Amino acid sequence: MFGLRRTPAPVPSPEDCLPGRPDAIPTSDVHFVTGRPIHGPFPANMDTIVFGMGCFWGAERLFWQVPGVYTTAAGYAGGTTPNPTYQETCTSMTGHTEAVLVVFDPDEVNLQALFKVFWENHDPTQYMGQGNDIGSQYRTAIYGTTEAQLEAGRESLVSYQSKLDESGFGQITTEIAPAREFYHAEEVHQQYLAKIPNGYCNHGFCQVSYN
Questions:
Q1: Which of 55, 90, 201, 206 does the annotation list as catalytic?
Q2: What mean pLDDT, rounded, does the chain reach?
Q3: What confidence tens digit (pLDDT) does each residue in 165-205 have?
Q4: Are 42 and 48 in contact (CB under 8 A)?
Q5: Domain span including residue 45
Q6: Is residue 170 domain-resident?
């Protein structure tokens, strides 16, 4: 019917995903803003977590601005296709979501501060998309690298859902799962909004304060 948005397809099964390639997509190792590396190994005192918030351009900028965040990178996570390209990911047939790798010093910034950035700057109730960006490649996600991160993520979801309920918003659709391989996006996507300050960004709105 005219005016109704088509429900996006779910994440494709592994056997239906594109084959990808054995070699990584070439990209610089240097963060355009901080000058720090965006590939590991990272300093031993750093922790790593991955967030999906829709388009990775605006999401990455939010995190590199957080004091205590050592470095960030834009990439693809949560899916099946090895070393996918941006064009392949945009087909919704890699299983990946656009994501941000966040490497942080837990002595300077805690998970709750990162969760605040995550929950308050996108719509976690939208299924398989953000705004007009529709597809499983834009789904909301938290990929933890430790069980403690996953448990903290689940607890933060329950806490934020209660705040959304109080304000009349819908149910959170955020995927919370162990981090698998993170595939760096092409160089043009790394720190995109530092290179193109007026580039596309659909982040920054807040439904309800996290804390």
A1: 55
A2: 95
A3: 999 999 999 999 999 999 999 999 999 999 999 888 888 77
A4: yes
A5: 26-195
A6: yes
